[in-house]
Amino acid sequence: MTPLAHSPHAHAVTSVSRIMATVMAALVPATLFGFWLYGWPAVYLWTVSLLAAVAGEAAVLAFQQRAVKPALLDGSGLLTAWLLALSLPPWAPWWIAVVGSLFAVVIGKQVFGGLGQNVFNPAMAARVMLLISFPLEMTTWMPPMGHLPGVLDSLAVTFGGQHLDAVSSASLLGHVKTEFSRGLDLQQALAGHYAPLSALWGWRSGSLGESAAPLILAGGVFLIARRIITWHAPVAMLAGVALPALLMSLIAPGHYAGPVYHLLSGGVMLGAFFIATDPVTSPNTAAGQLVFGLGCGILTYVIRTWGAYPEGVAFAVMLMNAATPLIDRYIKPRIYGRTRTGETLVVEAAKKDAA
Question: For the chain, where are the alpha helices, taking DSSP H only?
Answer without folding.
Answer: 16-38, 40-63, 68-73, 76-86, 94-102, 122-133, 135-138, 172-181, 186-190, 196-200, 213-225, 232-251, 259-264, 268-270, 286-306, 313-330, 340-354
